[in-house]
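Weekly structure sync, notes
Attendees: PL, DS, HV (note-taker this week)

Item 1: PRTase-CE domain-containing protein
DS walked through the input record. Source organism listed as Sphingobacterium bovistauri. Sequence as pasted into the shared doc:
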Amino acid sequence: MFAESIERSRLIYSQTDLEKIIKIISENNWTFKYHKGITNLWNKCANDDEKNLIEELIHRFLIFTSDDIEDFLINMASLINDDWKLTPENTIISSIADDSKPDSSHTVIQSLKGHLKNKYRLFANIVQAAHEIKTNDVLIIVDDFVGSATSISSKVKYVKSLLLEKGISEYQIKFMCFLGMKSSTIPLDELGIEYFIIKKIKKGISDYHTPEISIEKKETMRRLESEFNIASKFSLGFLESEALFKIQSYNISNNVFPVFWINKTKDKKDFESIFRRG
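Item 1 (cont.): predicted structure, written out as tokens:
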């Protein structure tokens, strides 16, 4: 009876590669679950510069658990219930989503609901919420993450334009989210609204290195990205956000470096990445 044929990997790891992969997984508890995607990405690296960069970014990667989310929700609710002292009669809380498609901000507002002391007017759609605003109302827009701030900027501009058409000039807009890039505070400040980001996240390369070294490392990343089917706007993460985080049970953000979630190679073959993005 012949022995069953076993498919074997054609890849031969050097002692250094094996040691580095073992070190990555042993020093970052979250990586064990994703070891296949990590080794797949490692195998796409053409040289030590690319491998060292991936190792560096994995060590820097943040994973937020359900316990973290619960703490974030408590912080949000405390701000609404106690600090801002808003009344249900003149307060509208809405997700940042503007249509009925599934959005992570829907999960945020549904989870937040259970932590609020009062029955505020809650909306899953910012367009619907905007049409309900009356004079002296406060609109609170919620989301899980702010990266480039393009989304919140467009929503605030929409609300302001709508209220101007309706002749409403006395109102407030506030924004709160779990996580945000440090760089997002600049465009948020320009909106002229009060905002609350529970945890600010640094750019994975630029906020850890000098400008000269950052340029070199970003070029290294772009060379690695060329092995995948990545649209230019997602290079280094959407609008070069350089994000390094994942909220458990949430879709991974496109602000994260795409080599962590892209599922197609440059020749459009399937690729099992570290994370899956819906």
